[in-house]
Amino acid sequence: MSRKLFILIFVLSCLALSASVFADEKAENKKNVELVREVVTREIESGPEGDAEKYISCYHGPSFVQYRIYTTKDPKNPNNLWITSAGPDAVRASAENLKKQKSRLDEHPELYYYYEVQHVHVMGDNAIAVPTFWQIMPDQEKRERFFHTHQTLYMLTKIKGEWKITSKISHMTSSDEIVKMRPY
Fold it and tell me: InterPro entries from the xrefs (predicted)?
């Protein structure tokens, strides 16, 4: 009888311990998802703000590689994936270009720019995040609106306890459309 009781107590203790460990892992994963989302959001928002230091703080420059998918209407050359920049110098050069983005937004207050980080997945010390970007640029003279949408895949690694962007693939999906505005 005491042996059965011992086994029952042992099994229940193991179940309780495993449930506790699972709950801790789930809480840790949720925390990491939010931290990854925060890094990607900070990187995206640094553009319209023109904040180069904020941008640089999101990256692990030594291991950074940026890829871009160029789409064409040429059936012989439909999609191409290119390395467009790599290393700390590329991160700094991109950060300097943020000033141009801020100037463009300041010059065109009618430009609508929005993004949403729609997917984050964390596995250990590695993560991916996929935001969608929307831009609308009205042209009053031509009575047109230019719509642009694209998604970018960010790859991050936890380095010395901090999440850093180590790679990204720009314009994984992309669409452009010009729509005629109705006369008023």
Answer: NTF2-like_dom_sf (IPR032710)
Query: What residues contact 57, with CB distance under 8 A and at least 6 apart?
Result: 42
| Residue range 152-167, pLDDT digits in tens | 999 999 999 999 999 9
Number of folded domains in the chain?
1
Q: Residues 133, 115: contact at Cβ < 8 Å?
A: yes
The boundaries of the domain holding residue 52 are: 2-180
**Dist. CA 161–CA 164, nearest whole Å:** 10
User: Which residues contact residue 32 at a Cβ distance below 8 angstroms, ignoring those fewer than 6 apart?
Assistant: 122, 127, 158, 163
Tokens of 155: 């790859």
Q: What is the CATH number of the domain that holds 72?
A: 3.10.450.50
- Global pTM value: 0.76
